[in-house]
Amino acid sequence: MIREYDALKSTPLKTGSGFVRPVQTLPERVKLSNSAVDVMTDLTKVSVISVRSKTSMDKANAKMIRYGVRLLLVLDDNDQVAGLLTAADVLGEKPMRFLQNMGGTHADIMVRDIMTTQRELEVLNINDVKSASVGNIVANLKKSGRQHALVVSESADGKQSVCGLFSLTQIARQLGAQVQTFELARTFAEIEAVIAQG
């Protein structure tokens, strides 16, 4: 049966070859009344960057820098979500508090020592997100006091899968705010200033 088909011509892979990565194109500008989906990173279209909980904090930070992200999904040994690690976790007070309580050096800090654990995370349901506006998401982030929000889909048996995420910084940029900081209060203030301008 295979004799009916001709093999394709193959050539050697060239040195320096890259590979195609999934891309999601979000609108450059949105309003608070736009659909929340217009500001959501859709993990069916974009690969999430992840890290293991036993990775050193410094390696995780280097990975964030390399990929240009400020959030890593932390996975356990079974590839299930163990938590989140943000740039604020790495660059904020958590490492110093850990060292004060546990001793050691900066190089001893693991992702699991400073991450937000799965038990501490609250998520948004994709069905709610699909009928929400950008303003709803901004209100959610402000209420939770967080820079990011995870979105999950739920199967018939109740199992959740992270399928999207929101970043306050990204939303602020899409709203037209000139975000120069990753300080939460200032980012909300910049968003409110853009809204006031109309």
Strand content: 15-25%
**Helix and strand pattern:** EEHEEHHHEEHHEEHH
CATH homologous superfamily grouping: CBS-domain
Give the number of helices.
8
Q: What would you call the shape?
A: globular
Number of strand elements: 8
Classify the helix fraction into a percent range.
25-40%
Overview of the structural elements:
By secondary structure, this protein is α/β, with parallel strands linked by helices. It has one domain (24-197): CBS-domain, CATH 3.10.580.10. The chain contains eight helices and eight strands. It has helices spanning 57-67, 87-91, 94-102, 111-114, 126-130, 134-144, 168-175, 184-197; strands at 41-42, 50-52, 71-75, 81-86, 116-117, 123-125, 148-154, 160-167. The strands form two sheets. A four-stranded mixed beta sheet has the order 1-8-7-6. A four-stranded mixed beta sheet has the order 2-3-4-5. The termini are far apart. The mean pLDDT is 89.
Short description:
Helix content is 34%, strand content 18%. The chain is of the alpha/beta class and 198 residues long.
Element layout with pairings:
Blueprint: E1 41-42, E2 50-52, H1 57-67, E3 71-75, E4 81-86, H2 87-91, H3 94-102, H4 111-114, E5 116-117, E6 123-125, H5 126-130, H6 134-144, E7 148-154, E8 160-167, H7 168-175, H8 184-197
Parallel strand pairs: 2-3, 6-7
Antiparallel strand pairs: 1-8, 3-4, 4-5, 7-8
Helix pairs in contact: 7-8
Salient structural properties:
8 helices, CBS-domain, 198 residues
